[in-house]
């Protein structure tokens, strides 16, 4: 390992002085007599030689500490790399576990459905769009058709709007162009669930004579053919009969957080063959 430049001149000076004193001490020891002048020189040089020896020892100790710091810095750098690698592995394990949990729930949903299903991943979610849509990884070659319901284990998210060979666009149920025949779970009151304000839905055509309250669950009614009966659509967030008109103003929060969708199930219109 090279000696830093800032130490080279000091070390050279110390070595030169030590060599000079060593030669002088040797010549003194070789002489059987010690004169007055020689004694004076010895008395003068002895403390200086001790100081030089201490300085040389201090420099050696400083050098050893420098080497130790260099070694510790290399070890710390290596440990930081290992910590970063382990952190990445933990993140990957957590992601894998979370994905496994989601897929397990979708598999359970597939097993419970009386219709054939097609599993897919969300591959695009436009930040700005004329429609509230997402794109999924399955298309016409996989059996996906326009109008098919799309859902997660928590409930319905929308329906297939259009397909290509290997992908499809899903119109989310919060879009104003989305209309699904629906009913209130408790009272069995029926109406149409329509997209509203891009984040909520509203249930239309519910007479004021019907009892609807906040927290009621909204299900698909099965009318219209595409959506089978009993799929969870959302929860009533607000029910207001108002002063005029024949129908209530009912706002519904979707059962699924539409911003967090990663995997979905597409429900075919084809029934599973009975065993």
Helix content: 25-40%
Large-scale geometry? elongated
Strand fraction: 25-35%
End-to-end gap: 78 Å
Per the CATH scheme, the topology name of the largest domain is Thrombin, subunit H
Number of strands: 12
Largest sheet: 6 strands, antiparallel, barrel
What is the count of distinct domains?
A: 2
Helix-strand sequence: HHEEEEEEEEEEEE
Rg for CA atoms = 42 Å
Low-confidence stretches: none
Task: Supply the CATH class of the largest domain.
Answer: Mainly Beta
The CATH architecture classification of the largest domain is: Beta Barrel
Structural class: alpha+beta
For the largest beta sheet, what order do the strands appear in spatially?
1-2-5-4-3-12
Instruction: Name the average pLDDT.
Output: 80
Can you tell me the CATH superfamily of the largest domain?
A: Rod shape-determining protein MreC, domain 1
Question: How many alpha or pi helices?
Answer: 2
């Amino acid at each position: 390992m090279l000696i830093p430049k800032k130490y080279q001149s000091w070390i050279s000076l110390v070595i030169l002085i030590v060599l000079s004193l060593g030669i002088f001490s040797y010549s003194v020891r070789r002489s059987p007599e010690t004169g007055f002048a020689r004694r004076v020189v010895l008395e003068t040089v002895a403390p200086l030689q001790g100081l030089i020896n201490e300085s040389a020892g201090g420099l050696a100790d400083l050098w050893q500490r420098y080497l130790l710091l260099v070694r510790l810095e290399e070890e710390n750098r290596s440990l930081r790399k290992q910590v970063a690698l382990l952190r990445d592995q933990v993140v990957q394990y957590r992601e894998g576990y979370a994905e496994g949990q989601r897929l397990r729930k979708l598999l359970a949903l597939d097993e419970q459905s009386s219709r054939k299903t097609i599993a897919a991943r969300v591959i695009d979610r436009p930040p700005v769009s004329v429609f509230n849509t997402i794109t999924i990884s399955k298309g016409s070659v996989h059996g996906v058709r326009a109008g098919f319901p799309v859902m997660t284990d928590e409930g319905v998210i929308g329906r297939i709007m259009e397909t290509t060979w290997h992908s499809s666009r899903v119109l989310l149920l919060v879009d104003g162009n989305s209309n699904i025949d629906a009913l209130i779970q408790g009272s069995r009151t029926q109406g149409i669930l329509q997209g509203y304000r891009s984040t909520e839905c509203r249930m239309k055509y519910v007479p004021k004579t019907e009892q609807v309250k906040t927290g009621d669950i909204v299900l698909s009614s099965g009318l219209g053919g595409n959506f089978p009966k009993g799929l969870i659509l959302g929860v009533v967030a607000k029910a207001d009969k108002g002063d005029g008109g024949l129908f209530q103003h009912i706002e519904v929060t979707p059962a699924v957080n539409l911003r967090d969708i990663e995997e979905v199930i597409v429900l075919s219109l084809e029934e599973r063959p009975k065993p």
